[in-house]
Design brief:
By secondary structure, the protein is an alpha+beta fold. The protein has 7 helices and 9 strands.
């Protein structure tokens, strides 16, 4: 039995769908990850395994089981980004805390071949709306390396507030990297004009239970 609201779910805006991971995503997930090594590896957590070993189809089943387990326990909301029926990337709300804090941290990656089409900003807007409505959270945080210009543009498009600077925050690509913290609270979401300017995103994003 699920231990938190808002999961499983599918979130939609035009041709964009956020849905739970599936066991059969292995081949498409691996193809994108292997093809995008140069695009993705500089921003990924450090690992003792090489890129091919941790992104081949055989690596998906244990990752899928971990994502599903964390979703069922209420620790995270893992989503696959699907655009026009094609797998485009992933977006996860992690470190979910209820109680007095009611917060989460969002991370994401996208296929370089689909970058620049407002897919990631739209997906983030959908997920923020879902976290503040169905999940009942109060705050969403996105932590980005200061040299990741593509990811910085995502939060800038949505008008997320710069909240802090974390020195040597995460072990990324073989070193401890600084990150800039961006956040939004439910009070800031209401009336945020930036969220309505993302092409294809309705004023109130559609979501429904998938379970």
């Amino acid at each position: 039995m699920n231990t938190h609201p808002g999961w499983p779910a599918e979130l939609t805006a035009g041709p964009l769908l956020l849905r739970p991971p599936r066991r059969r995503d292995a081949r498409a997930w691996s193809e994108i990850r292997l093809r995008n090594q140069e695009w993705l590896e500089p921003w990924e957590p450090s690992s003792a395994y090489n890129w091919r070993d941790r992104n081949n189809p055989a690596a998906w089943p244990p990752l899928f089981r971990a994502l599903r387990s964390n979703a069922r326990s209420g620790a995270m909301l893992p989503f696959m980004m699907v655009y026009g029926g094609r797998l485009a990337g992933q977006m996860n709300a992690s470190n979910i805390v209820h109680g007095a804090l009611r917060s989460c941290t969002v991370g994401y990656w996208i296929d370089a071949a689909l970058a620049g089409r407002n897919i990631t900003p739209t997906a983030l807007a959908l997920l923020v709306d879902h976290c503040f409505s169905a999940v009942g959270l109060h705050r969403v945080e996105v932590d980005i390396r200061p040299d990741n210009s593509a990811s910085l543009r995502v939060v800038e498009k949505l008008g997320l507030r710069r909240e802090g600077y974390y020195e040597r925050y995460l072990d990324i690509a073989g070193a401890w990297r600084d990150h800039v913290a961006f956040a939004i609270t439910v009070e800031e979401l209401h009336g945020n004009p930036m969220l309505g300017r993302i092409p294809g995103l309705p004023e109130t994003p559609a979501w429904h239970s998938a379970g």
